[in-house]
Design a protein that fits this description.
single chain, mainly beta, twelve-stranded antiparallel beta barrel, two-stranded antiparallel ribbon, 1 helix, globular
């Protein structure tokens, strides 16, 4: 309880600082599955079908709060395709660990998404991103390791009436290829014999810095697990809080570099048995 109170106070302080800071353009939302808060790939090139190549390094692969590859870092390489500004797109690629002992955890990800904006003329204008993913662990014959994952990301950039401060919510639901069979996956080696889900509640703020072309995105969120982790000792509680800061640098007309630094405060040992500091570095090339 003491740790929970400290975390809630810290989140409140971040909100107060954000409200009183100077900011630029409004924005919100996050993609936790791409390792907590992520600067989305820039698909602004004016083509009928927009394509981006993204390579991301994580000093520690944190998957919804769990150490997916233990103390090892992770690498992610994906192609992102946006279809004619329709809101539909797909993200297909590879992820694996930079270290030994994780051969069976290497996988291909097949993501199909739809994104858009609802209630545009209202104070509760809602940005949404719906994603379905199939995880293919191609280095193992244990097909019960495969999983389907469904994620809904919502953000409300105007609802608080504070420029550049946006609450967001993420719901994630995952099940094994055979929901009646126990399986292991890359979320910290967890195992379960039924579908699991979790919810993430957070705030995002864009902080303008005169020396930077793009604002710094400050984020704070808290995650509630509904049996998502822990094997026999599943977590049905608030699992962790993550604070983050990220931004973008345009290296050339088509190349963008996005660094991010994150601090996770763990609240349930079934998810992660200690606090974690990690970074995320992404290079995105658009066509």
């Amino acid at each position: 309880m003491k740790k929970t109170m400290i975390v809630l106070v810290a989140m409140l302080l971040l909100t107060v600082v954000s409200v009183n800071a100077t900011a630029a353009d409004a924005g919100a939302g996050k993609n936790v599955n791409s390792a907590n808060v992520n600067n989305s790939a820039d698909l602004s090139v004016q083509n009928d079908i927009k394509v981006a190549l993204d390579v991301t390094y994580m000093s520690k692969y944190m998957s919804y709060g769990a150490e997916g590859y233990g103390s090892d870092s992770g690498i992610f390489a994906h192609t992102i395709i946006d279809f004619w500004d329709s809101g539909f797109g797909m993200k297909i690629g590879y992820q694996g660990a930079n270290g030994g002992g994780h051969v069976d955890d290497q996988r291909y990800n097949y993501n199909f998404y739809y994104k858009g904006v609802a209630f545009e003329d209202q104070s509760y204008v809602t940005k949404y991103h719906l994603n379905a993913r199939y995880e293919h662990y191609y280095r193992t014959v244990h097909t019960d390791k495969y999983a389907q994952e469904y994620t809904v990301t919502l953000s409300w950039p105007e609802i608080l009436g504070v420029e550049n401060l946006s609450p967001y919510f993420i719901y994630d639901y995952e099940q094994g290829r055979n929901r009646t069979a126990s399986y292991q996956n890359a979320h910290g080696g967890r195992s379960h014999n039924r579908s699991d889900d979790l919810g993430v509640f957070g705030l995002a703020y864009l902080l303008s810095v005169p020396e930077l072309e793009n604002p710094i995105k400050l984020t704070s969120d808290i995650t509630y697990c509904n049996g998502f982790y822990g094997g026999a000792n599943k977590c049905y509680d608030w699992s962790h809080v993550t604070f983050g800061a990220s931004t973008k640098f345009k290296l050339s007309e088509n190349l963008t570099f996005a660094p991010g630094l994150y601090q996770q405060i763990s609240m349930d040992d079934a998810v992660c048995d200690g606090d974690v500091t990690y970074c995320k570095l992404s290079l995105t090339y658009t066509f």
